[in-house]
Amino acid sequence: MGQPVIFSTRFRLIISFLAMAALVGGFSLVIGVRLLTRSVFNEATNRIRLDLSAAREIYRNVEDRLNLGLSIPTLEAGFIAALQAGDIPFLRGCLQSVASRLDLDFAGLVDPDRRVLLRLSAPLGSLPDSGPVNPVAELALRRRAAVGGTAVLDRANLLAENPELAERARIALVPTPKAAPRPETEETEGMCLACAHPVYAGNTLIGVLYGGVLLNRSEQIVDRVRETVFQQEIYHGQHIGTATIFFKDLRIATNVLAPQGGRAIGTRVSQQVKEKVLDKGERWVDRAFVVRDWYISAYEPIVDVLGEKVGMLYVGVLESKYVDMRRGAVLVFVLITAAGMALAVLLGFLLSQRILNPVQRLIAVSRRVSQGDLSPEVGPLSRSEIGVLQRTFQEMLGSLRERYRHQKAESELKLLQSEKQASVGRLAAGVAHEINNPLTGVLTFTHLLLKRKDLEPEVREDLKTIADSTERVRRIVKGLLDFARQSKLEPRPSDVNELIESTIPLVANQALVKGVVFCFDAGQGIPKRTLDRNQFQSVLLNIILNAIDATERGGHINISSRLALNVSGSGTEPRKGIEISIADTGCGIPPENLDKLFDPFFTTKEVGRGTGLGLSVSQGIVERHGGIIRVQSKVGEGSTFTIWLPLEGEAGAP
Amino acid sequence: MNILVVDDDPVVQASCRRILEAEGHAVAVSSGALEALAALDRGPCQLMLVDVIMPEYDGLYLIGSVRARQPELPILVMSGYPTPETIASGRRMGATHFIAKPFTPEELVAAVNRALAGKGTG
User: Where in the sequence is the domain holding B91, given as residue range(s)?
Assistant: First the structure.
């Protein structure tokens, strides 16, 4: 088809389907992804909340274990007696066995006067100890009760306990983006889990046994959290779960990895988290950027034995797992939408194919019809409305063919008739021309002879017979000429009734002589019509004179006019026109003569009365006006000639 | 000569001569267009009767030629084939009157008289 693709029904149908699929798919994509993201995130934060509780339990577990392990010697009678007796070697043995059992980093004994009796790390015989008293032991002395939990040891304390410990606790601050600014470049204090138990002899406080582990650079707790809570799950080569112990905002024990590898000890938490957790003491459960990745993370403060918020416990899972999950879901949604759209295109194409194929066929068929092929194949009938169209089209083709056939037959007949008429006409013209010259001689000399006064009466009679016969010849030749003269019409608008009325007086005389009565019934509302008045009048005259000839004295000739439809000819619309009928009560025409009535030279009149050309010429004139002349007759009852002329504007009018 | 009759048919020539001489006209006869033009060269006439269909040069040619020389000369066309087309083409060439063949002596005399009087069309 010549039309642009965007206007084609197929394109529009496919686009509509596509738009629908895209709309539905896109909508469900947006909603689905949003819902999914929210539920995944909720799920993740709920899980991390639980994970944080589990981590806290592990932290407490370590603390409880210390607590329990250190409480046992203080209740043993031997230990109490040794302390009372000042049996330092025994006590050292006890301390060492406890420390090795509990894997303590530091331990010691302090007497009620705040003198350090024993330190785990101090070599034998290095007394007296001048270092500061461990703050946990100090607190237990002051409270006269067992103390356990998180505690901060400053550098002096650490040095006193064990110089190596102080060294382990020292952590250089790594510049971290988003962290709160801190002036110092390294952390020298250490955060520990420590316990101190007073030792009583009876009701008398005789000392305090203390011990603890340094959390700085300790891997024990954080790795256990990772093992038990996250079960060593690996995602893209990375542990999915991480745990960290913060001292203030500083990572002192962690399995979060630094960008360059290794544990990210020395990096700090973001200012935002620090303010919320460390300063306000609240929990943080949200996504957070940790060192180098986004994590779904949970933080809670760690409170030391003095009730101070000294650090934070953190667990986090890699967000990328959830992001990837979401990405996967989005991908699935996108794929489904794309598949839907592809399906829509396919469906639109197939549907349009199904709908449009018969239409295309119809277009092709109508093109062939317009090129003159009236019997193309419409193809299989569709069951839809298109089928109705196809059937209607077939019917239309059928009636077109019928009409064409009819018209062809009619025009062939007309051609034959006009050829017949033309050849007769040529013959008539030739004959007329050749006859007229000798006829002139005959007429002239007969009349000249008749003028002579000396003629015998019988000679004069004979001459008169010659003159009359010649007149007859002259009339025949004139009739022939009229028939041959297929001259062009000179039409002008005329009132048919007025034309009939002006024709009747011309034949009134003959009617009077014959004793026949005229009756004219003029129809109303007949519009003017262009016609050749002279020729048309000669038609009327011809028919009326025939009627007078056929009618006996006392008969009637009824002339009437009216508007009438012509329904002759199958396959044609009825046409509006003027009908003039001339009915006589004469002798009628035998059926065998009806067919020949309009043939040239056919006459029933006695020799010399008619040329046989009148009706033939009349028919020619009526037909050249686009009309029809018909005759109905019954022998003995009369004949009715009917002239029908189409109104102008109707098909067939000249 | 006051009337020139031009017709290739001797019967018509004779008919015209007899009728018109009986009426007292001086009649000359030519049987073709060239002959008629030669006759006109020898001396003028008051009326010319012309047949339309003649061998060689036809009546219409003759009428045209004569009309160029003598614009005032009445010309009566005689035709055995009096169709409206024939009459109209005769008029276009310059014929003034018309009569259909065959004619009776009375009809010819009437037409000639009308033509000579320069009245109406015949």
Answer: 3-117
Tell me the shortest Cα–Cα distance from B19 to chain A, in angstroms. 8
Contacts of A621 (CB under 8 A, 6+ apart): A532, A535, A536, A538, A539
* The CATH number of the domain covering residues in A381-486: 1.10.287.130
Does the CA dihedral A340-A345-A347-A348 come out positive or negative? positive
- B12: three-class secondary structure by DSSP: helix
Length of chain B: 122
Q: What are phi and psi of A466, to 5 degrees?
A: -60, -45
> Are A199 and A222 a contacting pair, CB within 8 Å?
no
Are A437 and B101 a contacting pair at CB < 8 A? Answer: yes
A451 contacts in chain B (CB < 8 Å): 105
Of A432, A451, A485, the CB nearest to B80: A432
Is there a domain that residue B93 lies in? yes
Q: B65-75 pLDDT, tens per residue?
A: 888 888 888 99
- Look at chain B and report how many structural domains it folds into: 1
- Across the A:B interface, residue pairs with CB atoms under 8 Å apart total 67
Cis peptide before A112 (omega within 30 of 0): no
Contact B18 A439 (CB under 8 A): no
Token pair of A406, please? 């009819």
Residues of chain B in contact with residue A440, where contact means CB-CB under 8 angstroms, are: 11-12, 15, 80, 101-103
Residues A32-54 have pLDDT tens digits of 888 888 888 888 899 999 999 99
Q: What is the domain-level CATH number for residue B19?
A: 3.40.50.2300
A553 touches A586 (CB < 8 A):
no
All structural domains of chain A with their residue ranges: 1-348, 381-486, 489-654
3-state secondary structure of B44: coil
Instruction: Tell me the fold of A1-348.
Output: Beta-Lactamase (3.30.450)
- The ipTM is 0.87
Nearest to B80 among A436, A451, A487 (CB): A436
Position B75 in a domain: yes
> Which residues, in sequence order, are CB contacts of B22 under 8 Å at separation 6+?
A448, B105
Instruction: Calculate how close chain B gets to A467, using CA atoms only, in Å.
Output: 10
Which whole-number Å values give the CA distances from A77 to A71, A83, A220, B94, B96, in the listed order?
A: 13, 10, 33, 173, 176
Nearest CA in chain A to B16: A444
Please check whether residue A548 is in contact with residue A557, taking contact to mean a CB–CB distance below 8 angstroms. Answer: yes
Specify the pLDDT at position A126.
59
Q: What would the pLDDT profile of A457-484 be if each residue is shown by its tens digit?
A: 999 999 999 999 898 888 888 777 777 6
Q: Which CATH architecture has domain A489-654?
A: 2-Layer Sandwich (3.30)
> Is B105 close to A447, i.e. CB distance below 8 A?
yes
